[in-house]
Amino acid sequence: MRFVVKIILRNCCVILLFVLLSTNVALAQDQQEEGPIYIVQSGDTLSTIATRWSVAQQALISANQLDNPDQLFAGQELILPGIDWIDGVLLPQRMPYGETLLSLSRQYRLSPALLARLSRLTSPSQLFVSYPITLPSQRGEDTSNIRSVVAPGRSLIEMAASSGSNPWTMTAENRLAGTWDVVPGDVLLVPGTDQSGPGALPSPITLLDFPTEGLVQGKTIAINVNAEGDFTLQSEMMGQSLDFYRQADGTYTTLLGVHALAEPGLTPVTIRGEFSDGTPFSFTQSVAVVDGNYGFETLTVDEALLDDELSESELEFIRSLATVATPEKLWAGFFQAPSPYSDTYNSFFGTRRSYNGGVYESYHSGLDFGGGLGVEIFAPATGEVVLAGPLEVRGNATLINHGWGVYSAYYHQSEIRVQEGDIVAPGQVIGIVGNSGRSTGAHLHWEIWVGGVQVDPLDWLVRPYP
């Protein structure tokens, strides 16, 4: 009997020990698995992730039970052990246009200080468009609220009453010190509502499409705003004041030409408007001007052809015509090539030029088509001829207005076959290639102007604007 009891006791001890060990292992695993989730991005390695989040590589391996730490894939979820100051799923992304540190703080229900820590910010001015940021999700964020701008003389109590919201809930959701802590122009979230849109711009704006690559030298920039209702909308950037035009589907659009020699760096971009009740709104955010990576070429020409003063005078004359933005958009879809030799180019737009061994201080402002003397020139899209006549430097010149501040220009023609005031159709013959003006050989110099700035014409052949 004693022998049986001993066996039973021994087995119970073994079972108890096994249970205790299993519990300790499970607890240890649970402890290791605590921490926010990081979404692996393309190009990430375990080393860069460990450095970015100040976590030991071995701790990452253990917490995530990684069999091969060298084989991470984009989209993989990794626990970040030992981080207790943030939770949720951490997703790296690019700063969009239309947000600020405060607007993100309100939507993600985190203090600006914590958001700054997540994205390693030292100053809110770093939040230019496309700056790499990290935002936490799956922790109670609310990114789809109606947004209301504080009008001059209007209190938060009045705003809450008009929207049917609790003023103290509205105060808390917008991280305000009190109902008195509002300033005209601030955009507040209205709790309990549902409408997507950029957090720093008021409803009824539901979408703001801004190029994530920034303002690339020599490129055409299209900004699209989706909104409900009627209001005025303008933009200011790079010294240009631009109007938005409403399309048939209700989208508001403006086009900007970035100068080919624009200085790389940050520049402010402002969007402002006014609602039908007279309430104004305005938003400014920095955007990066990006190098266009254009090539270089050295030209040897007769010094008699180099007259900077005359060339600049003609340029100002063309610009005076091309800065007039008419509200009717005359073109549709892609532009057609103005030459039958649509893939024969003598010189590309943006190429930095040195004349007779001088410095590279100028650039090629258009696209030169080859093909030789006598080749027909076609209108690339519907438009109105606003210039048809001789110029000393540019020779026989034609300028066509396509609406919305978009123009196309044709230089050095031997013949002009249109007159000012003509409405031309896509594919219509408007001239003949020549060698007029200050030219070193027969060719078509073709330019596209947007908002009073010359841009890369090739872009208009390969994508439809806006």
Secondary structure elements and pairings:
Layout lengths: L1 H31 L4 E3 L6 H8 L3 H8 L12 E3 L9 E6 L6 H8 L3 H7 L13 E6 L8 E4 L6 H8 L3 H7 L13 E4 L14 E5 L5 E2 L3 E8 L3 E7 L2 E4 L1 E2 L5 E6 L7 E11 L4 E11 L5 E4 L8 H15 L22 E3 L4 E4 L6 E2 L3 E3 L6 E3 L4 E9 L3 E9 L2 E11 L6 E2 L4 E5 L10 E7 L2 E3 L1 H6 L4
Parallel strand pairs: 1-3, 8-15, 16-18
Antiparallel strand pairs: 1-2, 3-4, 5-6, 7-9, 9-13, 10-11, 10-14, 12-13, 14-15, 17-20, 18-19, 20-27, 21-26, 22-23, 22-25, 23-24, 24-26, 24-27, 27-28
Characterise the protein shown here.
The chain is an alpha+beta fold and 466 residues long. The protein has helices at 2-32, 46-53, 57-64, 101-108, 112-118, 156-163, 167-173, 308-322, 457-462, and strands spanning 37-39, 77-79, 89-94, 132-137, 146-149, 187-190, 205-209, 215-216, 220-227, 231-237, 240-243, 245-246, 252-257, 265-275, 280-290, 296-299, 345-347, 352-355, 362-363, 367-369, 376-378, 383-391, 395-403, 406-416, 423-424, 429-433, 444-450, 453-455. Strands 17, 20, 21, 22, 23, 24, 25, 26, 27 and 28 form a 10-stranded antiparallel sheet that branches. A 5-stranded mixed sheet has the order 8-15-14-10-11, with no helix packed on it. A 4-stranded mixed sheet has the order 2-1-3-4. Mean pLDDT is 90; it is low at 12-30.
